[in-house]
Every structure is written in C-alpha cells, then in structure tokens.
Design brief:
With about 325 residues, this protein is α+β, with helices and mostly antiparallel strands. Among the domains are: about 100 residues, Metalloproteases ("zincins"), catalytic domain (Zincin-like); about 60 residues, no CATH class.
Length: about 325
C-alpha cells in the first residue's frame, strides 16, 4: 500500500505543491509571435490566468488511499461472495468430494462442535485419496466445508476426531475469514495498480492528440515509467512481506488449532498422528511453510500432556477439570 498506492499520490501532491509555488498560484500568460497567435486557443496556452487550486494537506494522501482501496475491496468482496462452495473446493483440489450423511458419526461429531461454538453450518466431505489431507474452506455466509482424505479416515476413530476438531478450530477462531480479508486487501492493491496503469496509458494517448502538449509526451512517459517501476517493486516487496507474515500467522494458527483439538479429543491421537507424519509433512526449513514441522507439533503436544499430567498429580481434585481439556494422562 505504501509503495503502490500512497507513494504515487504523495509524488502527485508534491508536484502539485511545487507547481503552485513556482507559478504563484496561477497559470501564466505566454507571449506569442503573431504567426503563432492562433495557438493561444489551445491548451495549455488557453488556460492562461486560470487560478491553480491549493494543493491538499498532507493527510490527503492517507485518506485518498483508503477511499481508493475500500471500493476496490468492496468490489472484490462481492465477487468473493458469489463464488460457490463447490467452486472453491474445485479450485483447491480439483473436485468437490463426497458429502457424508447427516447421521454419520463423524458428521455428528463435527455438528456438535459447530453448535457448541456457534460457527455456522459445517459439512464434512470425503476426498478419495490415500494421503494425509485435511483442510477447511469457508464462505462469507457462515458455511464451511471440511475435506478429509481416505488416508485419515482409515485411521482409528480418535485420530479422525482429533483432525476434525483441529479443522473446526480454524472456523471457531476465524482463521479462514481472516486470510480471506488479507487476500482481498492484497488483491485490491493489485487492482488499483492495474487501473492506474490503464489511466496513465490513456493520459499519454490524450496528450499525444493535443498540439503543444505533444512536447510533454517524453517527460510524462519517463515519469509514468518511473511510477510503474515503483509499483512493480512495491508489489514484489509487498508480496514477500505478505507471504512471510501469512506463513508466520498460519503456523501460529496451526498450534492454536492443535491445542483446541487436544482439549476436546486428547493429546494422544495428535501425538500418534504426527509421529506417523514426521519427515514427510513439511520441510525442516519452515520460514515459508504454511504448517509447522510435524516433529515440532508433536513435541508441543507432548509438552502440553506433561503439563496437564503434572497439574493432575499435584492437584488431584482438579482431575475432573483436566479431563474436560481432553489431555491424556495415562
């Protein structure tokens, strides 16, 4: 936003301020020889004597940036809301999956968590692949779909429920919605940059049509190229900043969802799952990983289990409360 939107507006304001001071607040009259007197009817000579409006205050850059981005985000949000859940699923995994029956035990388990935390409707779908795959997608209408692979469904029931509770946690804490907002903000900046590029090209074509202003084509072209270069650099820098922050936040979300699943199903199923996934789920270098390495997630659950076990042993009267957290202390 700073480089793609605010910097061009700031340069525009600074150029406006400099021009206003240099010309004394009005467009000067340029004396012409008799042979060129007819050109006085064409801009910019025809603008002679016109008062130049005062340049805006410094806060204008930020306020205008917001006024530009908010409509862009609203426009993209309308398109986002129009996308069906089936289309969202196909865009992720190429298919819509097979819906579970309403009375299926796994769907009943998911429904119980959804009602408890009032997250809206969550439908469970089966993904016919053998690997360990599970994710949740959300729509703006408080509808969610959990896609879970056969590779997980073949696991023991506690492991399956642990994975389902993990995915419900993402809906419970609004992880999918927050990621959608970040993407809308990023895409709105890209949309503004494309619109600005189209406007600059249209301005150049207009300048080339008008007499006298044709001489300004080359300086304007150089200026517009500089702005385009700034925009490209800004998009690239902003993209990588977004990726780094998104990956960092995504890993924190995964740890939080793991704790949620441990509270409702226990730590043992998660430890069993991650013990199976160690070395094959995420790379060791996790700076750009969307999920923490399985070994770290397993260790976090083991630490959680040890803490709960220590608390139970030191306070036997709290055993019932700790059982509600789902910790395995056997």
């Amino acid at each position: 936003m700073a480089t793609v939107v605010m910097l061009p507006l700031w340069l525009y304001r600074e150029a406006w301020s400099w021009l206003w001071r240099f010309l004394g607040g009005a467009i000067p009259e340029v004396p012409l020889p008799d042979d060129l007197a007819g050109l006085a009817a064409y801009p910019p000579l025809s603008w002679a004597g016109t008062t130049i409006p005062l340049p805006p205050e410094s806060g204008w850059v930020l306020s205008t940036s917001l006024w530009i981005l908010v409509p862009c985000m609203a426009l993209l949000a309308l398109g986002h809301m129009a996308v069906t859940m089936n289309a969202r699923l196909r865009s992720v995994c190429g298919q819509t999956g097979q819906r579970f029956e309403k009375d299926h035990p796994h769907q009943v388990f998911v429904d119980s968590l959804a009602r408890r935390y009032k997250v809206g409707r969550i439908e469970l779908r089966r993904l016919p692949v053998g690997g360990i795959v599970a994710f949740i997608l959300s729509s703006p209408w408080r509808r969610h779909s959990i896609m879970i692979s056969d590779g997980i469904l073949f696991q023991p029931t506690p492991v399956v429920q642990w994975v389902l509770a993990h995915e419900v946690a993402h809906a419970r804490y609004g992880d999918t919605q927050s990621q959608s907002v970040w993407l809308l903000a990023l895409r709105s900046i890209v949309l503004f940059d494309r619109l600005r590029h189209a406007a600059m090209n249209a301005t150049l074509r207009l300048v080339q049509i008008l007499p006298l202003l044709t001489l300004l084509t080359r300086p304007l072209l150089f200026l517009f190229r500089c702005l385009s270069l700034i925009g490209r650099v800004g998009r690239r820098v902003g993209f990588w900043i977004f990726v780094l922050f998104d990956r960092w936040a995504s890993r924190r979300m995964e740890y939080r969802a793991d704790r949620f699943a441990a509270e409702h199903v226990g730590t043992a199923p998660g430890i069993t799952l991650f013990a199976h996934l160690v070395g094959q789920f995420e790379p060791t270098f996790d700076l750009f990983a969307t999920h923490p390495p399985a070994a770290k997630r397993r260790r976090a659950l083991e630490v959680l289990s040890e803490r709960v076990a220590a608390a139970v042993s030191s306070h036997p009267s709290r055993e019932r409360q700790d059982r509600r957290t789902g910790a395995d202390t056997t």
